[in-house]
Amino acid sequence: KMDDDDDIPQLSSHTLAALQEFYLEQQQREGMKTSQGFNQYSIGSIEEDWQLSQFWYSDETASCLAKEAVLAAGKGGRIACVSAPSVYQKLKEQDGEGFSVCILEYDRRFSVYGEEFIFYDYNHPLDLPENVLPHSFDIVIADPPYLSEECLQKTAETIKYLTKGKILLCTGAVMEEQAAKHLDVKMCKFIPKHSRNLANEFRCYVNYASGLD
């Protein structure tokens, strides 16, 4: 009934615009689904939000990192993607063959992935649901949203809480010393690429013998 509108809390114009955009994108995607056999996990099903400092990896890089994660996690392994949704989406394309994966992400659009989505704000590194047990992931892939020591340090708390040991960190080359300090990880030869070129040189860092060298 139309006269019930009074009970509805008014949304800010910003939220409304975001919602409208979201619905519009969804409608476009519905159209895509029918026209091209849609894959809900493919990159592009959720667009980058630069205000959240999101930059997707190139397809090749996302595939390479996903493959590395599966190998590192081992059979039946558990993988956590912290602020690294493009790797998560690549892992989902592999249809969970012998591994499981969670995504810890600030962007609630990823809640479409259901129980695998864990809302994550690096400012509260250990504010995680009770069912996320310490050291319950075979490997954690993380890409802190900002190139600052504070962001890395806080994300590092989360990574150390989640991982049984293995860490794959993607961040700027300028963060090499801080990455070693906070996570004891070393730079690999592999150079991650983004779908749009970033001004900052990006690198991968690991604390185990990876296939990225």
UniProtKB/TrEMBL annotation:
Biological process terms in GO annotation: methylation
GO molecular function, one term: nucleic acid binding
Nucleus in keyword set: no
Record field: catalytic activity: L-lysyl-[protein] + 3 S-adenosyl-L-methionine = N(6),N(6),N(6)-trimethyl-L-lysyl-[protein] + 3 S-adenosyl-L-homocysteine + 3 H(+)
InterPro entries reported for this sequence: DNA_methylase_N6_adenine_CS (IPR002052), Efm5/EEF1AKMT1 (IPR019369), Mlase_EEF1AKMT1/ZCCHC4 (IPR041370)
GO annotation, cellular component aspect: cytoplasm
Highest taxon listed in the record's lineage: Eukaryota
Keyword terms of this UniProt record: Cytoplasm, Methyltransferase, Transferase
Protein localization: Cytoplasm
Keyword Lyase in record: no
HAMAP family: Methyltr_EFM5
Name of the protein: EFMT1 methyltransferase
Lineage: Eukaryota, Metazoa, Chordata, Craniata, Vertebrata
